[in-house]
Design a protein that fits this description.
The complex is a heterodimer of chains A (about 350) and B (about 850). Chain A is mainly beta and about 350 residues long. Chain A has one helix at about 1-20, and strands at about 35-45, 50-60, 65-75, 80-85, 95, 100-105, 105-110, 120-130, 130-140, 145, 150-155, 160-180, 180-195, 205-215, 220-225, 235-240, 250, 255-265, 270-280, 285-290, 295-300, 305-320, 320-335. Chain A contains one helix and 23 strands. The longest helix of chain B has about 45 residues, at about 300-345. The two termini of chain B are about 35 Å apart. The chains are: A mainly beta (about 350), B alpha+beta (about 850). The interface of A and B includes residues 89, 92, 127 and 344 of A.
Chain lengths: ~350, ~850
C-alpha cells in the first residue's frame, strides 16, 4: 500500500513538474486545484514614523472563496481582523484564470489598475471597520519557485504537495484611511501563492511558517511541518533568496529552531511560541525573531473556521558575524486544540 | 340598585329560570355563528400568516429583492458589486421538489451563497456539531433540512434523499439538520437549504438565480440606492420591497378568502337575528310585567338595562359555547381551506395553523357585541311600554304598525342604494361596493319583512273570502297579528335561504361555464407535467430537452409546450405571462375567443405578427382589449405587444398574457416547460401512447401524464372541492334560520295561551288550534321562502353580475338549476312545518279554564 502511494506520488510529481509555471498566467487561479491561496504580509510605516503590519489573504476551497484581513498597530497595542466567505459568483467573489485578479466583496488584489496599465504593479485593497487599506506593490525581485520547480512537498502522500510561488520583496506605497483621515504609508511586503490538493499530511499537527526579510537584501522562507508526536516532519524545508543571484533550497537538517518563550491566548487558550531562536548553519545566520505585539491571533469562525497566529515580527540577526536587522511575518497553526488547518476531501 | 335587581329578576332572571329552554335557541344560534366565525377567521389568518411567514423567513433582513421573470442571469450580479461599500447582497435559487415514498410531499428548495448569506438570512445548524463534519457541507450535493422535517421523514446527516425536481429524479445527501428558526421556518420547515450551485443542479437551472436580496448598512439612503441599483441593473430585472412576494401570494387567494369571510359573517348574522328575535319575544311576553313594574315606579333605564343584560347573557353563553365548538371547527376549516389553497393556488404552499387566540378573541368580541347590539332595539321598545295600556299583550304590534310607512320608505332607500352600489366599479380590484349592495339588500329585507308578513297574512282571506275555513282564518290571524316578531323570523329565513339559493345558482352557473369551457379548451389527448406527488397543480418545470423526445415519438401528431411565469406590471400588479406553440393552436384551436372569431386564424396571425392573446380576467383587470397594447417586462426592457384577441379563461383570476413560444424564447432565456399538451395521431390509442411515453422516459424523467378525460374530471373535482366549504356554511345558516322559526312560533304559542283558552272556550277543538299553528308555521316558511326567492335573485344578480366579475374577472353564463333550488325551498318549507309541531302541541294543550282565569 505504501509502495503504491509512493509510486503514485512519483507519477504525480512528474506530471506536475512537466507543466512549467509561467506568469502572469500562474498568478491567476488554478481551477483543477482544490485549495488555493494568495497571501500578502507586510510591514508599513506612516509619515509620522508609526509602524504597522498587515496581512491580506484570499483563499479558495473548491467553489468557496474566503478572505482574511488583519491589521497590527503595535504602538497602540491594537490588532484587528475581518473575514469573508462566499461562493465564487460574479460581483461577489472570484479569481481570474488569466492573471492576478482575485476579489471577495470589495477586497481585491490585481496586477493592474485599469485595462491599459502595464502589468507588474500589484494593487491591493481591503476594508474593515478599523480602516481601509489601498496599496501599490512593486516587485523588487522576480517570483521564486519553492521546492523542485515550484512544487513544495508537505508529506509522503500523493496529495501532500502544493505549487508554491513567492515574491519575497515588494515595495509598498499607499494609504490607510481611518475615520475619514488618510495616512500615507510605505513599506515592504511579501507575496505567497499556493495551490494544490490541500490535504494536511497524515500525522501532521500544524505548521510554523517564517517569511524573513533581512536588511542585507536577502530573504528566507522557512516552513516547519510539526508532527502529532512532536518534532518536525522531514518534509519541512525552506528557501534562501540572496540579495542577488538564484534562490536555493534549505533542508531542515541545516536549520535549528527553538522557541524561547510562549504566549497563551486569552481568546482560544492556545499556547503559542512567542520568541524564536533561529540558526541556519550553511548561511552562517543566527537570528532572534520576536513579535511586535503578542496578540496577533485570528479566530476565523465565519470563514475557514481555523484559529491561527499570524503576526508582524522584528528580527535581530548576525550573518557571518556581522549584526544585521530585519523584519518577518510568522504564521503558527494547529496550536488551538485539534484545530488543524487544511480542508480534507 | 335594589330596584334594578328587582326589575332584572322580574323581567329576565325569573322567566329564564322558569323556561330555560327558551334561551337555548338564541344561545345556540350565537354559538354556531361564533364557532363558524372563529374557524373561518382562523383559517384565513393562517393562510395569510403562512405566506407572510414564509416570505419573511426567506427574505430575512432584506431591504430590496431583485427578480426577473425568468430569473437573474448570474453574470448580472457583477452590476451590483458597488453595493459592498454600503451593504451586501445575497443571490438565491428557489424552487420546489417532490419527495417520494409512501406519502409524497412538496418541499421548497433554497440555494444560497454559503457564508455570504448570513448577511441576509439566519441559518442555524444543530447537526453536525464538529467542524470537520461541517466542512464537508462545503462539498456539493448536500442539503440541510429542518429538525421537524428530519424527524418526520427519519433523516439524519449522511442519509441520501431521493427527490424529483423539475420532472427529473435526483438524489441529494442530507448534510445537516437545521434549527427551526430563521429561514428554516419558511413553510413550517418543509424546506431544503443548500448551496446555490447544488440548487441549480437539482433544479436543472444553471447560470441563473431567482432572486438577489439586498441589505443596506444603517444610515444608507434606501431611495438613492434603489435608484442607483435600477440604473445599473440590466433592463428586465425588477427591484421590489421584500413583502411583495407575500402580498402577491396573498392577493392570489384574496377573493377566495373574502368569500369565506362573507359566508362566515352570514352565519353570525343569522345568529344575531335569533337573539333579536328572542329578546323581542321576551319584551312582548312580559309587557304586563313591564307595565306593572313601571306602575310600581321602575324607571325606563332600568328596564332597558335589564333587557340589555339579557342580550349580554345570551351573547356570553353563546360565545362561550361557540369558542368550544370553534376549537373543533377551526381544525376542520384549516384543513379544508389549506387544502384548497395548496391544490388550486400554490401547490407548494404549506398552510400552518396560526395561533388560535386572535381568531377566538375576535369572534368572541363579535359574538358578544352583536348580541348586545341585537338587543338594543327590542330593549328600547320595552322602555316605550306605558304603565297602563300595555297590561294587554299585542299593543306593541299596534305601535309597530304605525311605523310601517317609515320602514317601507327606508327599505326602498336601501334597495335604491344597493342598485347604485352595484353599478360602482371595484376598489383596487376588490368588489367592495358589490358586497355593500348585498348588505343593503339584507337591510331592505329586514325592514320590509313585517310588511311582507302582513301582506301574506291578508292574501288568503282576500282571495278566498268567506270560503277560507275557520282554521285558515285563525292561522292568518295568528301570523299577521304578530308581524313584528314573525317579520324577524321571516327575514332571518329569507336571508339564509336567499343567500343559499344565490350560492346554488352561482356555483351551478360557474360549474357549467367551466365545464363547457373545459370541453372547448382541452383539445389535447395527453397532458404531461413534472411529477407533482399527486397534486393537481404544477410543481417544478420540465427541461426543454424533453420536447424533441416526445415530439419524435410514434403516435404523436403535435406537441404544445406551455410555459407560465408569474410577473407584474409596472405598478406591481401581478399577472401570468405564458407561452405556447401558436402553430399548434393554429392547427387544433382550443383557445375560445370572446368575440367568437376562429382561434386558429387568430393564433396564426398573432404568430406571424408577434402579437399576444390575453385572458378575459386580464382584459378586465388591466382594461385591455383586442387591438390595444400590453406592456411586458422582458430581459431587454419593457416592450409593448399588440393584443390579437381576448380568450375565455377560468383557470387563473390574475389574468394571463400568452404569446407564441418562439417570441417568448427570443425575449427570455427560459426554455423550460411548465406542461406539455400532446395531440395523438389519428387512430392512436391514448392509453397506449401514455404507456409508451412513460416507458421511454422511465429513469430519466419522473412525469405525471393525464388523459383528456382524466384532466376534465380533475378540473371539475377541484371545482367541487373548492366549494365544499361553502356548502357546509350554507347548511349551517339554513339550520339556524329554521331554528329561528321554531323559536318564534313556540314563543307565540306560549304568549297566545289566553287567546287559545278563549278559542277553546268558544268551541275550537285542540286539533283545530294545532292545525292553525301548523298552518301559521307553513305561512311563515312560505313567506320566508318567497322573500328568499326574491332576495336570492338579487343576491345572484350581485354575485354573478358584480362580485364575481370584479373579483375574478370571469364572464359566467347564468344557469338556474331549478331542481336544486326547488329542493332547497321544499326542504325549508318542510322544516318550517316541522318547526310548528311543538308550538302546536303547546297551543292545543292549553287548559281553557286556566287561560280564561288569566284573562
Amino acid at each position: 500500500m505504501k509502495t503504491l502511494s509512493r509510486l503514485f506520488a512519483g507519477a504525480f510529481f512528474l506530471a506536475a513538474a512537466s507543466s512549467p509555471v509561467s506568469f502572469p498566467r500562474d498568478h491567476g487561479t488554478h481551477a483543477d486545484a482544490a485549495v488555493e491561496w494568495w497571501y500578502w504580509t507586510g510591514h508599513l510605516a506612516s509619515e509620522d514614523g508609526r509602524a504597522y503590519g498587515f496581512q491580506l489573504t484570499f483563499f479558495r476551497v473548491r467553489e468557496m472563496h474566503l478572505a482574511h484581513f488583519a491589521w497590527s498597530d503595535p504602538s497602540a497595542g491594537k490588532f484587528a481582523y475581518r473575514e469573508k466567505t462566499h461562493l465564487g459568483l460574479p460581483g461577489i467573489a472570484g479569481a481570474s484564470a488569466e492573471r492576478l485578479d482575485v476579489f471577495n466583496e470589495d477586497w481585491f488584489a490585481r496586477d493592474r489598475e485599469g485595462e491599459r496599465e502595464r502589468e507588474g504593479v500589484q494593487r491591493l485593497h481591503a476594508r474593515s471597520p478599523e480602516g481601509e487599506l489601498t496599496l501599490a506593490l512593486r516587485a523588487e525581485k522576480p517570483p521564486v519557485l519553492h521546492g523542485a520547480s515550484g512544487i513544495s512537498r508537505k508529506g509522503p502522500g500523493p496529495d501532500d504537495y502544493s505549487h508554491y510561488v513567492s515574491i519575497p520583496r515588494l515595495s509598498a506605497t499607499g494609504t490607510w484611511i481611518v475615520g475619514g483621515k488618510t495616512r500615507q504609508v510605505h513599506g515592504t511586503a511579501w507575496f505567497d501563492h499556493e495551490w494544490g490538493p490541500g490535504a494536511l499530511p497524515a500525522g501532521a499537527a500544524g505548521w510554523d511558517w517564517f517569511a524573513v526579510q533581512l536588511s542585507d537584501g536577502s530573504e528566507l522562507m522557512l516552513y516547519r511541518m510539526r508532527l502529532a508526536g512532536g518534532g518536525a516532519s522531514p518534509f519541512s524545508s525552506g528557501t534562501f533568496i540572496p540579495a542577488s543571484g538564484p534562490p536555493r533550497t534549505i533542508s531542515w537538517e541545516d536549520v535549528s529552531l527553538t522557541a524561547r518563550s510562549t504566549w497563551t491566548s486569552p481568546h482560544s487558550r492556545a499556547a503559542y511560541p512567542s520568541t524564536w531562536s533561529l540558526a541556519v548553519r550553511s548561511l552562517e545566520l543566527e537570528a532572534t525573531i520576536s513579535p511586535l505585539m503578542p496578540d496577533q491571533e485570528l479566530s476565523t469562525q465565519q470563514s475557514t473556521g481555523v484559529t491561527y497566529w499570524e503576526g508582524a515580527c522584528r528580527v535581530e540577526a548576525k550573518r557571518g558575524g556581522r549584526a544585521i536587522g530585519g523584519r518577518a511575518y510568522v504564521e503558527m497553526t494547529g496550536y488551538a486544540g485539534r484545530d488543524v488547518p487544511g480542508f480534507g476531501p | 340598585m335594589k330596584g334594578f335587581a328587582l326589575v332584572f329578576r322580574a323581567l329576565v332572571a325569573g322567566p329564564a329560570r322558569r323556561r330555560p329552554a327558551r334561551v337555548v335557541l338564541p344561545v345556540l344560534g350565537v354559538a354556531i355563528g361564533v364557532a363558524a366565525g372563529a374557524a373561518i377567521h382562523h383559517a384565513n389568518r393562517s393562510v395569510t400568516a403562512s405566506f407572510r411567514e414564509a416570505a419573511s423567513a426567506v427574505s430575512g433582513r432584506t431591504d430590496f429583492v431583485v427578480t426577473g421573470i425568468a430569473g437573474v442571469p448570474i453574470e448580472d450580479l457583477a452590476a451590483l458589486s458597488f453595493l459592498w461599500r454600503i451593504g451586501s447582497f445575497a443571490p438565491a435559487v428557489t424552487g420546489t421538489a417532490v419527495l417520494g415514498g409512501a406519502s409524497p410531499e412538496v418541499v421548497q428548495i433554497l440555494g444560497v451563497d454559503w457564508g455570504g448569506d448570513a448577511a441576509v438570512r439566519d441559518i442555524r445548524l444543530v447537526e453536525p456539531a464538529g467542524r470537520a463534519a461541517r466542512a464537508k457541507l462545503l462539498s456539493g450535493g448536500s442539503v440541510l433540512v429542518s429538525a421537524p422535517f428530519a424527524r418526520r421523514r427519519g433523516l439524519s446527516p449522511g442519509k441520501s434523499l431521493p427527490l424529483v425536481a423539475g420532472g427529473v429524479p435526483r438524489v441529494a445527501t442530507v448534510g445537516g439538520i437545521l434549527e427551526l428558526s430563521g429561514v428554516a421556518r419558511a413553510w413550517g420547515g418543509d424546506i431544503l437549504i443548500t448551496d446555490l450551485f447544488t440548487a441549480q443542479a437539482l433544479l436543472g437551472r444553471p447560470g441563473r438565480v431567482d432572486r438577489v436580496d439586498i441589505v443596506l448598512d444603517p444610515g444608507v439612503s434606501r431611495s438613492d440606492t434603489a435608484r442607483e441599483i435600477l440604473r445599473r441593473l440590466p433592463a428586465g430585472l425588477t427591484l421590489e420591497p421584500p413583502g411583495r412576494a407575500a402580498a402577491t401570494a396573498d392577493r392570489m387567494v384574496r377573493a377566495f378568502r373574502f368569500n369565506l369571510n362573507a359566508l362566515g359573517s352570514l352565519t353570525l348574522l343569522v345568529g344575531v337575528f335569533l337573539v333579536a328575535n328572542a329578546v323581542s319575544i321576551a319584551v312582548l311576553r312580559r309587557r304586563p310585567e313591564i307595565a306593572t313594574l313601571r306602575a310600581l315606579g321602575a324607571g325606563r333605564s332600568g328596564i332597558f338595562a335589564a333587557f340589555l343584560l339579557e342580550g349580554l347573557g345570551i351573547g356570553l353563553a353563546g360565545t362561550a359555547l361557540g369558542e368550544v365548538l370553534g376549537l373543533f371547527a377551526s381544525r376542520a376549516a384549516l384543513a379544508a381551506v389549506g387544502g384548497t389553497v395548496s391544490r388550486i393556488y400554490l401547490p407548494a404552499a404549506r398552510i400552518a395553523g396560526a395561533p388560535l387566540f386572535d381568531a377566538m378573541a375576535l369572534s368572541a368580541a363579535m359574538g358578544i357585541a352583536a348580541s348586545v347590539a341585537a338587543t338594543l332595539w327590542p330593549a328600547w321598545e320595552a322602555t316605550r311600554v306605558e304603565p297602563s295600556p300595555a297590561m294587554r299583550p299585542g299593543s306593541i304590534e299596534a305601535a309597530a304598525r304605525r311605523r310601517t310607512g317609515r320602514r317601507v320608505l327606508l327599505a326602498c332607500a336601501a334597495l335604491a342604494a344597493a342598485l347604485a352600489a352595484s353599478r360602482a366599479p371595484a376598489v383596487d380590484g376588490f368588489p367592495l361596493f358589490g358586497f355593500s349592495a348585498v348588505g343593503l339588500v339584507v337591510a331592505a329585507l329586514a325592514l320590509a319583512a313585517p310588511l311582507l308578513v302582513r301582506l301574506a297574512s291578508s292574501l288568503p282571506g282576500r282571495f278566498l273570502g268567506g270560503s277560507l275555513p275557520a282554521v285558515g282564518r285563525l292561522a292568518t290571524g295568528f301570523f299577521g297579528g304578530t308581524s313584528g316578531r314573525n317579520g324577524i323570523a321571516v327575514s332571518a329565513l329569507a336571508m339564509a335561504l336567499g343567500m343559499t339559493l344565490a350560492m346554488i345558482v352561482t356555483v351551478a352557473s360557474i360549474r357549467e361555464t367551466v365545464r363547457v369551457w373545459v370541453e372547448s379548451t382541452l383539445r389535447s389527448d395527453l397532458w404531461i407535467k413534472a411529477d407533482a406527488g399527486g397534486r393537481s397543480g404544477i410543481v417544478g418545470d420540465l427541461p426543454a430537452e424533453i420536447l424533441p423526445l416526445i415530439r419524435g415519438m410514434e403516435g404523436v401528431a403535435a406537441v404544445d409546450p406551455f410555459r407560465a411565469r408569474e410577473t407584474a406590471d409596472a405598478e406591481g400588479r401581478p399577472f401570468t405571462l405564458a407561452a405556447g406553440d401558436f402553430a399548434v393552436v393554429a392547427r387544433a384551436g382550443g383557445i375560445p375567443l370572446l368575440d367568437g372569431r376562429d382561434p386558429r386564424r387568430v393564433a396564426r396571425e398573432a404568430r406571424e405578427r408577434g402579437e399576444v392573446l390575453i385572458s378575459e380576467p386580464f382584459a378586465r383587470r388591466f382594461g385591455a382589449s383586442a387591438g390595444s397594447t400590453v406592456s411586458v417586462g422582458t430581459e431587454a426592457g419593457r416592450r409593448d405587444f399588440k393584443v390579437a384577441g381576448v380568450y375565455r379563461d377560468y383557470s387563473n383570476d390574475r389574468g394571463t398574457v400568452v404569446m407564441d413560444r418562439s417570441l417568448y424564447l427570443s425575449l427570455f432565456a427560459d426554455p423550460r416547460i411548465s406542461s406539455l399538451a400532446v395531440l395523438a395521431a389519428p387512430g392512436q390509442d391514448t392509453g397506449a401512447l401514455r404507456r409508451r411515453i412513460l416507458a421511454a422516459t422511465r429513469g430519466r424523467y419522473a412525469l405525471s401524464i393525464s388523459t383528456n378525460r382524466e384532466l376534465r374530471r380533475e378540473v371539475l373535482l377541484i371545482f367541487d372541492r373548492t366549494f365544499a366549504v361553502t356548502r357546509a356554511l350554507e347548511a349551517i345558516a339554513i339550520a339556524v334560520a329554521v331554528l329561528g322559526i321554531a323559536n318564534a312560533l313556540a314563543a307565540s304559542a306560549v304568549e297566545r295561551r289566553r287567546s287559545f283558552g278563549l278559542l277553546r272556550a268558544i268551541g275550537a277543538s285542540g286539533g283545530q288550534i294545532r292545525s292553525a299553528t301548523l298552518l301559521e308555521a307553513l305561512l311563515t316558511g312560505a313567506t320566508g321562502t318567497l322573500a328568499a326567492i326574491a332576495a336570492g335573485a338579487a343576491f345572484s344578480a350581485l354575485l354573478l353580475g358584480v362580485i364575481n366579475p370584479q373579483s375574478f374577472g370571469w364572464t359566467v353564463a347564468l344557469r338556474v338549476p331549478t331542481s336544486s333550488l326547488c329542493g332547497a325551498a321544499a326542504l325549508v318549507l318542510a322544516a318550517s312545518v316541522l318547526a310548528g309541531v311543538l308550538p302546536g302541541r303547546i297551543a292545543s294543550a292549553v287548559d281553557p279554564a286556566a287561560a280564561l282565569q288569566e284573562e
